[in-house]
Amino acid sequence: MTTGDAWDEDYRQRGRLWIGGVTGIFPLPPAGRVLELGCGNAKTIAAIRGDPRRITGIDISRHALILARSVAPEAAFCQADARRLPFPDGTFCVVTAFHITGHLSAEGRAALAGEALRVLVPGGIICVREFSTGDFRCGKGTQTAPMTFRRGTGIRTHYFTVDELEDLFAPARVISRIPRKWTMRIRGRDYPREVIDAVFRRE
Ligand SMILES: C[S@@+](CC[C@H](N)C(=O)[O-])C[C@H]1O[C@@H](n2cnc3c(N)ncnc32)[C@H](O)[C@@H]1O
Known about the structure:
Strand order of the largest sheet: 3-2-1-4-5-10-9
Number of helices: 5
Helix content: 10-25%
Number of strands: 10
Bound molecules: S-adenosylmethionine
Order of helices and strands: HEHEHEEHEEEEHEE
Distance between the termini: 38 Å
CATH architecture: 3-Layer(aba) Sandwich
Shape: globular
CATH topology: Rossmann fold
Structural class: alpha/beta
Mean pLDDT: 91
């Protein structure tokens, strides 16, 4: 089973996997197209303020896109692999990648970063959100690579350090890199969650 199959099966069985609000969303610039990599059921796209007709979401899962289209009918969607994007160089002014990069192999993460920068206009920005090594799930499941763990669904997650995320998107310039922490209550117990929100500019 490929990673894409595992995601597709998850969406097919469980429907909208991602619900609730999204905090820390960047304001849309006044013009230009926006690309969301691994848009899932369009939770993030629905939270971006601005004209949804400027937004394109791609996902490897066909079932995710069925859900995404029902959530954000005015945005454009296409089934595609973030490691090989079907767009010409310099198509977008913003690329967002929220919780997709960490689900790829080291080679896949490098390919995604290269593709994200390729499809950005010079001066365009990429917004990345990934779980960091401080998250309570880091270390849970079967270790498949350094700081990478596969859980029951077959989906693996890599947990990042800030420096690693910066290196991945080099030579893009770092605009901001903010670790965000909160606690998640599960059956009466609090667990630490931790993500890194990073913004880079393509020079
Ligand atoms: C954790 S979900 C995040 C969804 C969404 N970005 C959000 O934050 O709500 C990861 C998404 O990445 C998609 N995905 C995984 N590998 C992919 C790939 N190689 N290319 C495109 N999408 C991929 C999955 O199908 C899934 O919808």
